[in-house]
Structures are given as C-alpha cells and as structure tokens.
Specification:
The chain is mainly alpha-helical. Helix content is 63%, strand content 5%. The protein has 2 domains: 84 residues, Multidrug-efflux Transporter Regulator, Chain: A, Domain 2; 54 residues. It contains 6 helices and 3 strands. It is elongated, with a radius of gyration of 23 Å.
Length: 138
C-alpha cells in the first residue's frame, strides 16, 4: 500500500465526510483492530494521519468490493508485514473471485426460480398463492 506522510491530520468527523463514511464505521474498524488507534490532541480529539486516511480508504474500498472482514484482515496483514508478494495477493484474490463466481451462480439460480414461480401468480386477492406453495415445496 502506498504510504505517504504529507497532508494535515484530520479529525474523525472531517475524515468521515471526506471519505463519505459514517463516524461509527471508523470507530468500529478501530475497535476490531483493522484501523490503528489514532494520535490524539491534548484535549483528546482523534487525529488521523495521512497514512491512517489511506488505510481507511483501502479498507472502505475492499469492503465496497465485498471482501469480508477476515479477508480484509489477511490483506492488511500482508501489507503491514511489508513482506508480501504479488503472488500471495493474487492467490487471495483468486480465492475471493471463486467465491464471487459461486455467489453469482447462486443468484442467477435464485433469479430463475423467482421468475418461474412469479409467472404462476395472478397477484389477486385470494389467499391461495402459488409463490408460497412453491416455496413450501422447494
């Protein structure tokens, strides 16, 4: 991960606005240990360095792409050790890609099933619903 140290430290509220995330999201990531505890002002306000900001941006992007917290921990562990290889990152992302491919197949199956059983429904006012019946049978 690119680490630069220029730029002003930001308070949590400013950082949340800048990265368009919730304050509680940042707090959560600190609590579970994937964001480091930030430095503090003498009055106790949290200040996030440029590297903290970049790390949070990386975390948010990975979460946006659907990486689980555990997968994210593995990626961050590699980055934090500075001993990772592109091959290790590739292997992890290929494993994730396989999982995504399986989820897509499951979603396509779900879509086909819902379309098929929805065709049987007239959407009327009777309590006999073919969708409910199909869901009980499948």
């Amino acid at each position: 991960m690119k680490k630069t140290h220029s730029g002003e430290p930001l308070k949590r509220g400013t950082l949340a606005k800048k990265l368009k995330c919730n304050l509680e999201t940042i707090r959560y990531y600190e609590n579970i240990g994937i964001m480091p505890q930030p430095m503090r002002t003498p009055s106790g306000h949290r200040l996030y360095s440029q590297s903290d900001q970049e790390r949070l941006r990386f975390i948010l992007r990975c979460r946006e792409l659907g990486f689980s917290i555990e997968e994210l921990r593995k990626l961050l562990s590699m980055v934090d050790s500075d001993g990772y290889t592109c091959g290790e990152v590739y292997a992890l992302t290929q494993k994730y890609l396989h999982s995504v491919t399986n989820k897509i197949a499951d979603l396509k199956k779900l879509e086909r099933t819902l379309k098929a059983i929805s065709k049987e429904c007239a959407g009327g006012d009777t309590p006999d619903c073919p969708i409910i019946e199909a869901l009980y049978l499948d």
